[in-house]
Write a structure and sequence with these properties.
alpha/beta; Glucose Oxidase, domain 1; disordered N terminus; eight-stranded mixed β-sheet
Length: about 525
């Protein structure tokens, strides 16, 4: 009887396991479509070369969004649309050039640089002296009052340019995997799950300095970007990559975004440093500068938008599995790896599932977010607008770390999903999907859903050149995308979305979220 009971238990367990075992034929078909019949690089061409950059609120962002909507409709998705939200006026660059002349030297030096988004333009081409006020507190304002009108200000000291020792290419080796597999600080120690922190009360010293420059009639402000050539991996990870400098510029936006910011330009560090040294040796520097920008009125409903579309579910259609990536980019390149590759992979995942004629139990939805670069604005707006639906979200999967292949999932302090994800990944072992980290990562759009209690995850990716060369830089072009890795990303995302949609139960929620009734 014991043997009979044991046999019955084993048989019941086998039946339960079989009910959750991936359909190997479906997974094989997804793999074939994703890897052998990929449309990913064509999609990325249109997103980057043809339609980039995609600065939130800009005419190019709007045009790229229209293209993406039509592309998703052509795949057979339903209810594809833009969901708008308020962002502010649109900004786009019409023209820019800057040339430097030093002392009595007859030659000029064209400057490598790029205006910051949302800075004002100049009143046509100007020729202005360059100065370097050294302001460390508001007490220094009196020293320079009345001396800066019409001048171009260098706002930072010289920065050392180091030999190129790297690392430039970051792959998940034993050291990186070991760190990824270590739990991070508890949520309370990280400051909770509410996203990027805020500073103290009142305007910062930097804001007061910028206001002083504006009141003094400064013509433009030059900077050379960050104070270090080492870029961090983010989310409490110790990973570092060296910026290569050499004309690679890491430029973002001016504040505020309402048209009141002075003309501001980020220069290549070597060109910036030369001007600092010349001025320190009392050699006059002048720059001919032209920045032409265009401001556009915010459309009805808002200049920010998200793009949403569905593959409808069947018996569990009211439950939603969402895949997503941020659609916006910075403006100095075409946003190919930040985040054209993520958008492409998720669009391609939806194409694969629909092309194969698969009919998921749960609705599979794509979300392409605006305003991520300004603080995950689009995904936060979506969660707020759909707050009543969050209980019906079975999962959200996000891609936002460049062109490298998916290696696994950051499990966001939710260990209950580990055996499920390992089962999902078993048919993908030869594609390198084998890292399931307990860590909670931040600073991208899955966090908006995580905060709302949804099981929300960022995929672990090989970083490659992401932090060293292409992230927020003027070198984020199609050329840096890796075709085979992009095919792998789309295939893995499609498998995870499909298997999540087919499970009898949605993914388990974090214990804290479940206890709070989220």
């Amino acid at each position: 009887m014991k043997r009979t009971a044991l046999a019955l238990c084993v048989g019941a367990a086998a039946l339960m396991l079989a009910a959750q075992t991936p359909d190997s034929n479906v997974i094989a078909r997804i793999r074939t479509e994703g890897i052998e019949h990929s449309q990913a690089m064509d999609t990325l061409f249109w997103l980057s070369d043809a339609k980039g950059p995609r600065l939130t609120g800009s005419p190019a962002f709007e045009q790229a969004g229209d293209w993406a909507v039509e592309r998703l409709k052509s795949y057979g998705l339903v209810n594809v649309h833009k969901e708008r939200w308020k962002f502010g006026k649109g900004w786009s660059l019409e023209d820019f050039h800057a040339t430097m002349r030093a002392g009595d030297q007859p030659q000029v030096m064209p400057l490598i640089g790029y205006p910051k988004a949302w800075s004002q333009g100049t009143p046509g081409e100007i020729s202005a002296d360059v100065v370097r006020p050294e302001i460390t507190s508001t007490a220094d304002f009196a020293k320079y009052a009345g001396t800066l009108r019409g001048k171009i200000v260098l706002s930072q000291p010289e920065r050392a340019v180091h030999m190129l020792t790297g690392p430039f290419i970051l792959m998940m080796g034993p050291k990186e995997i070991a760190e990824a597999m270590q739990p991070d600080q508890p949520a309370a120690a990280r400051g909770g799950r509410g996203g990027r922190g805020r500073g103290g009360r009142g305007p910062s010293l930097q804001a007061q300095i910028m206001q002083f420059y504006k009141e003094q009639g400064v013509a433009a402000i030059f900077d050379r970007g960050g104070n270090s050539d080492m870029a961090s991996g983010g989310s409490n990870l110790s990973w570092k990559q060296q910026h290569p400098d050499g004309g690679t510029i890491f430029v973002q936006g001016a504040n505020p975004r309402d048209g009141s910011a002075l003309p501001q330009v980020t220069l290549a560090v070597e060109h910036y440093n030369r001007m600092v040294r010349l001025l320190d040796h009392n050699i006059p520097v002048t720059v001919n500068l032209n920045i032409a920008v265009k401001w556009t009125d915010e459309p009805a409903g808002g200049g920010g938008f998200n793009i949403v579309g569905d593959i409808p579910g069947s018996d569990l259609a009211n439950q939603i599995v969402m895949v997503g990536a941020h659609f916006d980019s910075w403006h100095a390149a075409t946003g190919a790896t930040d985040n054209g590759t993520g958008v492409t992979a998720m669009m391609e995942a939806m194409r694969i599932i629909h092309t194969l004629g698969l009919h998921p139990r749960r609705t599979i939805r794509i979300g392409l977010w605006g305003g991520e670069e300004e603080g995950e604005l689009g995904s936060k707006e979506y969660v707020a607008a759909h707050r009543d639906e969050m209980a019906n979200f079975a999962a959200y999967y996000n891609l936002d770390n460049g062109t490298g292949k998916i290696r696994g999932v950051w499990m966001q302090d939710n260990p209950a999903v580990a055996p499920i994800f390992k089962a999902f990944a078993a048919p993908l072992a030869d594609l390198g999907v084998d890292i399931f980290s307990p860590r909670a990562v931040q600073q991208t759009d899955h966090q908006s859903f995580d905060t709302a209690g949804v099981p929300a995850f960022q995929f672990v990716q090989e970083r490659l050149e992401y932090n060293s060369r292409t992230h927020h830089s003027n070198m984020d072009f199609y050329d840096h995308a890796q075709p085979d890795d992009l095919k792998q990303q789309a295939t893995v995302a499609a498998v995870f979305a499909w298997l999540t949609a087919e499970r009898d139960q949605p993914l388990p929620r974090q214990a804290a979220a479940a206890a709070a009734g989220r």
